């Protein structure tokens, strides 16, 4: 069987070590790095570094590469666009790809109501602007997010994000009129409770919350990840998500689905919120929208999106021609190749393999997935469920050294997350999984010895 991992040097190799020295001298320590090497070429689910080492990519640029690295259709479209014009700023002289992409997003997002869409550069910008629009439309101030939620690193986005370190520590004060509610974490529920009990408890807490913290009449929006990303790939029940939406409808609160990490086929549908039969008022989109080019979107009900007046939303680079052209071709690829179906297959294969391993390794506490948004949670003890952050750190480090790029996640940093490109072949997927299994087995057996 053909092998895709090809390691010619240790990691980092000689050329990467030189670049690392330059990185440490010239770039602040704040931006984190997982794989301690430098890419030279990316194709599909494979990355080759400056020393000629080839890796299988299970990180996908933190969920950005659903259609893989350098897909030919996208690259060809970009070359054509570059030869015409690079940028005029949509606010100065408009361009057709922006309108065409808005039409496409409006047509594929949930709901048959009239929609409008505009574009920015990053997921955090999309979140910031969705909140601006919600406040403008409702004439209310309050924003409710959820514990373990992640929405970005700009100030409003950071304010509604839950994990303190590394995202919020020392950066306050934060934006006012933001509040957090619990979010189901069924693996860590008390043993006497059912999943329905967890849902009922949290939903009932909204009633007291509106008495204790903020009046429902002063809440503009609830923002929710349909699957929590940085929080550890926590999947809520249909019952819970629908329950939150009903509360929003009861009190005239807008429901914002943050699909920055979950969108564009990752969970087995074009958008994760489709699993819950819920139609959001607003959606935030980014990451895999454009195969790595910086573009994001806010889309929603036309009357809500039209609440800001001319000039009140936008940005110089928002919805760049290159980003729009890339996004149109990414969406075309996802639809033509049915990559949402491929996501389902990828998730099933990962779960099947690690379910077998779980029987032999008690440190594997939980395996969860929605499509190809798959995670393994590690614990020190299966009964106490004490998080095993140290083990995950070692697994990530050693796996990267052996040619598979992967990331951790979770409030407790004890979750191994899988975000491989949806174009990964079964052969590449299984070779990468074998490496991860070997690393887990070796590290745990070493601890036992």
Automatic annotation (TrEMBL):
Pathway: Amino-acid degradation; 4-aminobutanoate degradation. It comes from Anaerobacillus alkalidiazotrophicus. InterPro entries: 4NH2But_aminotransferase_bac, Aminotrans_3, Aminotrans_3_PPA_site, Class-III_PLP-dep_AT, PyrdxlP-dep_Trfase, PyrdxlP-dep_Trfase_major, PyrdxlP-dep_Trfase_small. It is an enzyme of class 2 (transferase). Keywords: Aminotransferase, Pyridoxal phosphate, Transferase. It catalyses: (S)-3-amino-2-methylpropanoate + 2-oxoglutarate = 2-methyl-3-oxopropanoate + L-glutamate; 4-aminobutanoate + 2-oxoglutarate = succinate semialdehyde + L-glutamate. One of its GO terms (molecular function) is pyridoxal phosphate binding. Its EC number is 2.6.1.19, 2.6.1.22. Pfam families: Aminotran_3. This is (S)-3-amino-2-methylpropionate transaminase. Belongs to the class-III pyridoxal-phosphate-dependent aminotransferase family. Its cofactor is pyridoxal 5'-phosphate. Coiled coil: none annotated.
């Amino acid at each position: 069987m053909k092998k895709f991992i090809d390691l010619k040097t240790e990691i980092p190799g000689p050329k990467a070590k030189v670049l690392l020295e330059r990185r440490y001298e010239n770039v602040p320590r704040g931006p984190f790095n997982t794989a301690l090497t430098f890419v030279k070429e990316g194709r599909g689910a494979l990355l080759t570094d400056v020393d000629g080492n080839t890796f299988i990519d299970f990180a996908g640029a933190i969920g950005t590469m659903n259609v893989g690295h350098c897909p030919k259709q996208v690259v060809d479209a970009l070359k054509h666009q570059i030869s015409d014009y690079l940028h005029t700023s949509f606010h100065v002289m408009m361009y057709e790809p922006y309108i065409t992409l808005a039409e496409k997003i409006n047509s594929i997002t949930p709901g048959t109501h009239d929609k409008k869409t505009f574009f920015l550069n990053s997921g955090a910008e999309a979140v910031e602007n969705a909140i601006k629009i919600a406040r403008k439309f409702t004439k209310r101030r309050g924003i409710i997010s959820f514990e373990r939620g992640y929405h970005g690193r700009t100030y409003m986005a950071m304010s509604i994000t839950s994990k303190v370190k590394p995202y919020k520590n020392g950066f306050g004060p934060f934006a006012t009129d933001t509040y957090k509610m619990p979010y189901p974490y069924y693996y860590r529920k008390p043993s006497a409770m059912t999943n329905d009990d967890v849902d009922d408890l949290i939903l009932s807490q909204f009633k007291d919350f509106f008495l204790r913290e903020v009046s429902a009449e002063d809440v503009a929006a609830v923002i929710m990840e349909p699957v929590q990303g940085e929080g550890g790939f926590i999947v809520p029940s249909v019952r819970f998500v629908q329950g939150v939406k009903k509360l929003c409808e009861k009190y005239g609160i807008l429901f914002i689905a943050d699909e920055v990490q979950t969108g564009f086929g990752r969970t087995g549908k074009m958008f994760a919120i489709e699993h819950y039969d819920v139609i959001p008022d607003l959606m935030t989109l980014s990451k895999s929208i454009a195969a790595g080019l910086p573009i994001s979107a806010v889309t929603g009900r036309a009357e809500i999106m039209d609440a800001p007046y001319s000039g009140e939303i936008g940005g110089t680079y928002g919805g760049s021609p290159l980003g729009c052209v890339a996004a149109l071709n990414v969406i075309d690829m996802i639809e033509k190749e049915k990559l949402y179906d491929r996501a389902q297959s990828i998730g099933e294969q990962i779960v099947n393999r690690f379910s077998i391993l779980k029987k032999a390794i008690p440190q594997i506490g939980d395996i969860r997935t929605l499509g190809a948004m798959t995670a393994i949670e590690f614990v020190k003890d299966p009964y106490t469920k004490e998080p095993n952050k140290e083990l995950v750190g070692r697994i990530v480090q050693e796996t990267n050294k052996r040619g598979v790029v992967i990331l951790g996640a979770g409030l407790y940093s004890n979750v191994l997350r899988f975000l491989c490109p949806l174009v990964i072949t079964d052969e590449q997927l299984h070779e990468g999984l074998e490496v991860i299994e070997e690393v887990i087995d070796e590290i745990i057996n070493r601890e036992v010895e």
